[in-house]
């Protein structure tokens, strides 16, 4: 019984971390059709922002929940202005340019912080479930991941900003004719996507530590989740993360983490063979 | 074939390869020769992506998956057999078969360009994570321990086929690698000039039209992708032999982005371009590696960005365009 509870929590955790690492990417891809290969580096920068702020005496929660998203959001806005905008509509060139950007960030951070692991201790303690002890912080992550999804839904559905964003993505010319400036909406969207990514990077820093090349560890899973999810930001991320998180964690429990990772990839490739446009390309059409 | 004139660029590149291949050992010292050997192995890798991406139009960001798979296949086979010939053959076949499997899912699922890029990249990164986590005695294939992130050291190097005791010395290895590079280069050009090659390029230009003309687009993409995977695997075995060492870094993001940069810098849609891009960037990487002024990744990132934003066609096609403008010969079609 205890084992079942722990296992269920592990699965929830796997799902939550997939949601965290991929939701920022999903916003940028779902809204702008831009694939940001520097996504892993945005996560890495979020982690460093949180760690540097904490080591300067900022409260760890503020560092993770406020400093990290602001720093990475600003970096995202600058990147959009300087690079993404020039290449808008040229999907492959954007892909390549953001790849260059990713190398640039890895090099820059290595130059500044050195090629060593930095980390902060996870806040909160642990709770005991029968014979097992579970980190409370991991449970909080599950709640935060859910909160982020709810928040994105609320912003897109109920606010004027969300309406403008959805309208621009639907038909940029029409939006422009109605007095909205699409370039500004794109910048804002990219910035928000980057900020959410930074937030995720900050939240994951206590669990995994940060290294200049840590982005590579996240980016594959993030892309697999987003692409398998399809274009709907929330429904896609949530369903794909649930599927792959479960596959990954259950296989990891039954065998080894290595098989768990491979199983995640195999599940994704099989899924895309059956549903080339992702889960929400076929099911839940028209959802957000 | 025989009625077609060989273009001056191809003739020049072939001649240059023969000159370097024959003259190299006479001119440079042992260290220089080892450098040339690894450069030539990398040129084979560059050609593999050059043909898959530049001619097949397949955005493959995972060429280093096949390269690494080839390197590990060679390592495991050579350690188990104590002999290299079977290892070299398998290092082409195993990545080729893997490419065919992966390609089946991607092309027969009709995934679009960008998805292909992301999937192939993810495959590479998962290999990287997988191999990094194979530390420990449990992870062994036959007598070969995979050793996780420490890599597999002291691999048996190439020997004369059928005579495991007779190892190739650095000069002989250099001849072998240059000969393989020449065979791959000329072979790819011959393939591109054949009916199959024409169809592959036609598929790149317009998939729908090819399909309507009755060609199996998916099959052609699958075949060219598999060929590229096999060639990358060959380069992998040459690389593993060169250092007598292989580590998960062959699958790393740095490795895979290098290959992309070679092709971007050299120019898409040519075979000379990836070779030239590879030589320039390899030289630069070696130079940057010997000094501490700037991080290699930082400089490569800037070069990558600069080429995508400013010289999107790459060096060789840009030079061809300049020459065409200066001397008025028929302009090359811009390559999408």
What does the model show?
The complex is a heterodimer of chains A (288) and B (336). With 288 residues, chain A is mainly α. Chain A has one domain. Chain A has twelve helices and two strands; from the N terminus they run H-H-H-H-E-E-H-H-H-H-H-H-H-H. Chain A has helices spanning 2-32, 39-55, 60-84, 91-113, 136-158, 160-170, 172-177, 182-208, 215-229, 233-254, 257-274, 279-282, and strands at 126-129, 132-135. In chain A, strands 1-2 form a two-stranded antiparallel sheet. The model of chain A has no long low-confidence stretch (mean pLDDT 84). With 336 residues, chain B is mostly helical. Chain B has one domain. Helix content of chain B is 71%, strand content 3%. Chain B has helices at residues 8-27, 30-55, 63-81, 85-108, 113-132, 170-193, 195-205, 207-212, 217-243, 253-266, 272-290, 296-310, 315-327, and strands spanning 140-141, 144-145, 159-160, 163-167. Chain B is globular, with a radius of gyration of 20 Å. At the A-B interface, helix 4, helix 9 and helix 11 of A face helix 4, helix 5, helix 10 and helix 12 of B.
Could you tell me how far the N terminus lies from the C terminus of chain A, measured between alpha carbons in angstroms? 37 Å
The residue fraction in helices of chain A comes out at over 70%
- Please indicate the count of domains of chain B: 1
Give the amount of beta strand of chain A, in percent. under 5%
For the termini of chain B, the CA-CA separation is 26 Å
Q: Counting H and I runs of at least 4 residues, what is the number of helices of chain A? A: 12
Biggest beta sheet attributes of chain B = 2 strands, antiparallel
Low-confidence stretches of chain B: none
Q: Hey, which two chains have the biggest interface?
A: A-B, 47 and 45 residues
Lateral strand order in the biggest sheet of chain A: 1-2
Secondary-structure-based class of chain B equals mainly alpha
Multimer state: heterodimer
Unreliable stretches covering 5 or more consecutive residues of chain A: none
């Amino acid at each position: 019984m205890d084992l079942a509870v722990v296992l269920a929590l592990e699965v929830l955790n796997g799902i939550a971390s997939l949601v965290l690492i991929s939701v920022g990417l999903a916003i940028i891809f779902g809204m702008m059709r831009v694939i940001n290969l520097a996504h892993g580096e945005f996560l890495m920068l979020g982690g460093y922002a949180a760690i540097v702020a904490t080591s300067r005496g900022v409260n760890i929660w503020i560092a993770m929940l406020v400093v990290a998203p602001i720093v990475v959001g600003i970096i995202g806005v600058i990147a959009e202005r300087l690079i993404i905008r020039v290449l808008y509509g040229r999907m492959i060139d954007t892909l390549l340019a953001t790849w260059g950007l990713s190398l640039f960030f890895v090099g820059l951070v290595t130059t500044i912080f050195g090629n060593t692991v930095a980390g902060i201790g996870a806040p909160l303690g642990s709770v005991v479930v029968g014979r097992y002890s579970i980190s409370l912080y991991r449970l909080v992550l599950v709640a935060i991941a859910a909160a982020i999804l709810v928040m994105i839904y609320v912003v897109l559905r109920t606010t004027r900003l969300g309406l403008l964003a959805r309208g621009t993505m639907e038909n940029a010319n029409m939006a422009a004719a109605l007095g909205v400036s699409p370039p500004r909406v794109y910048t804002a969207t990219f910035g928000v996507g980057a900020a959410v990514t930074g937030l995720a990077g900050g939240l994951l820093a206590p669990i995994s530590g940060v290294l200049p090349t840590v982005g590579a560890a996240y980016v594959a899973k993030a892309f697999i989740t987003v692409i398998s999810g399809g274009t709907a930001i929330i429904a896609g991320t949530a369903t794909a993360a649930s599927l792959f998180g479960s596959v990954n964690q259950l296989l990891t429990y039954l065998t080894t983490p290595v098989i768990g990772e491979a199983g995640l990839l195999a599940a994704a490739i099989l899924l895309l063979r059956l549903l080339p446009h992702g889960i929400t390309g076929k099911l839940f059409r028209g959802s957000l | 074939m025989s009625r077609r004139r060989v273009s001056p660029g191809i003739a020049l590149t072939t001649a240059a390869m023969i000159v370097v291949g024959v003259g190299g050992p006479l001119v440079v010292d042992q260290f220089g020769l080892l450098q040339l050997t690894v450069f030539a192995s990398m040129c084979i890798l560059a050609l593999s992506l050059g043909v898959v991406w530049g001619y097949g139009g397949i955005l493959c960001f995972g060429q280093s998956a096949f390269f690494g798979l080839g390197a590990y296949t060679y390592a495991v086979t050579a350690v188990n057999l104590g002999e290299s010939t079977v290892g070299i053959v398998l290092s082409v076949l195993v990545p080729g078969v893997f490419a065919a499997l992966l390609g089946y899912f991607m092309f027969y699922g009709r995934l679009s360009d960008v998805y292909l890029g992301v999937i192939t990249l993810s495959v590479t990164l998962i290999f990287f994570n997988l191999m990094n986590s194979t530390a420990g005695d449990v992870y062994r294939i036959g007598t070969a321990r995979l050793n996780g992130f420490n890599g597999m050291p002291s691999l048996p190097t190439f020997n004369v086929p059928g005579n495991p005791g007779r190892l190739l010395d650095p000069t002989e290895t250099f001849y072998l690698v240059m000969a393989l590079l020449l065979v791959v280069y000329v072979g790819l050009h011959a393939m591109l000039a054949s009916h199959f090659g024409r169809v592959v390029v036609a598929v790149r230009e317009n998939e729908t039209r090819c399909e309507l003309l009755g060609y199996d687009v998916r099959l052609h993409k699958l075949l060219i992708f598999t060929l590229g995977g096999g060639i990358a695997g060959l380069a992998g075995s040459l690389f593993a032999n060169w250092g007598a060492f292989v580590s998960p870094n062959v699958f790393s993001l740095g490795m895979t982005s290098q290959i992309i940069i070679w092709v971007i810098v050299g120019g898409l849609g040519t075979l000379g371009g990836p070779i030239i891009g590879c030589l320039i960037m390899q030289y630069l990487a070696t130079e940057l590696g010997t000094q501490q002024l700037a991080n290699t990744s930082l400089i490569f990132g800037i070069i990558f960005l600069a080429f995508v934003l400013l010289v999107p066609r790459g060096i060789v096609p840009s030079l061809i365009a300049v020459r065409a403008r200066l001397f008025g010969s028929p302009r090359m079609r811009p390559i999408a």
